[in-house]
Structure formats: C-alpha cells, structure tokens
Known about the structure:
The protein is an alpha+beta fold. It contains seven helices and five strands, in the order αβαααββββααα.
Amino acid sequence: MVASRPARRPLRARLGATLRWIHIYVSMLGFVAIAAFAGTGLTLNHPEWFANTEHTREFRGQLDAEQFLAEQSDSVRSQSIDRLGIVEALRARHTLRGRLADFSIDERECFLTFRGPAASAEVAIDRRTGEYTGSTTSLGFTALLNDLHRGHDTGPGWSLVIDAAAAILLIAACTGIGLLCLLKRRRRAGLVVAGSAGAALLVCYWILVR
C-alpha cells in the first residue's frame, strides 16, 4: 500500500505564515530604530525641554610653514599647500571631529571649517609664519541625537544607516498590512482605523500647517 502524500497547505495559509515570519523578525530588527526615532522626534520638537549644553574651546599653535605652506609670493599657492597634511596635523593635535567642510585660501591665510553632528571647529592659519588660532564648539548629547536623527553633518555612511532603518520599518509596515488583509474578521475594522489615521494626519496638516 502506497502512503498518501500530506496535503499541501492552502496558498492563503502559506502566504500568511510567510508574512508573519517576515513581520516578526523585521519588526525586531527595527525596534531599536523605532525607539530611537521616536525619542529624538520629541527632542527635536521640544528643544526647550532640554538644557543648553553648548561648550566652546579656543586653541592656538604653529605649523611648520616650509613643510605645509606655500610662500606668499608663490603664484600656485593653492596647489602648493599641503591640505591633507594640515588637516591631519590639526586633527592629531586638537582632536577635531567631523568632516572638512571648507578649506579656503587667500594671500595671507588659510581658513578651515570642520562640521560634525553637534560639533564644529574653525581654524585660521597665517601662511607666512604658520601660526594658527581656532575654536571648537560642542552642543551636547541631545544635539548629537538630533543631528543623528536628521542625518545632519553625519557623512554618507550614516546616511546609508538611515536608509536601511527606513527600509526595515517600511517592510514591517507593509507585512503588517498584508497580515491584516488576510484576517477576514478584522480586515475591515483594521483598514478603517488605518485609513482614519491617515485622514486625520491630512486634516491636521490642512488646518494647522497649510
């Protein structure tokens, strides 16, 4: 006697199981992102709730003009200046954070600006002597979280992290809707609630913002 094959599960059941599996594990991946974006949404919307912790530090020093800087009379002064060497020397001496946002040169000075999340620095260098003065500004931990939320001065790497988090949350939302549509008893009520929430957001925008 030949054993009968087990009956295949209906397509609806297999689809529901797959969506459930994706939804559960993707939601767990996105849990930290949801908490982080929710918390920083509050700090962005209510900056008055948090103390201003801005801190400024001034510094000065001197670079070897012959090593890093072109002579003032050099007609190719922009090309002769060791930009990378100057930036690395300043970072090593004064622990400057963030990306180099600007490196401008004139006949007398080089002026550098560094920008990072909740931090910035500015340095002016005398091309003739190599002497420089600068300052750093730090805005504190809350400002750091806010800039990470917005991707402000965080670089392309963090931008990819934000994109990945957004994709994870979008997948979690879509699989959740898919699961809801497979539940006959709750489908209509769930879609009505989701549609009402979307309509409420549009009404709030129309009345409060537009």
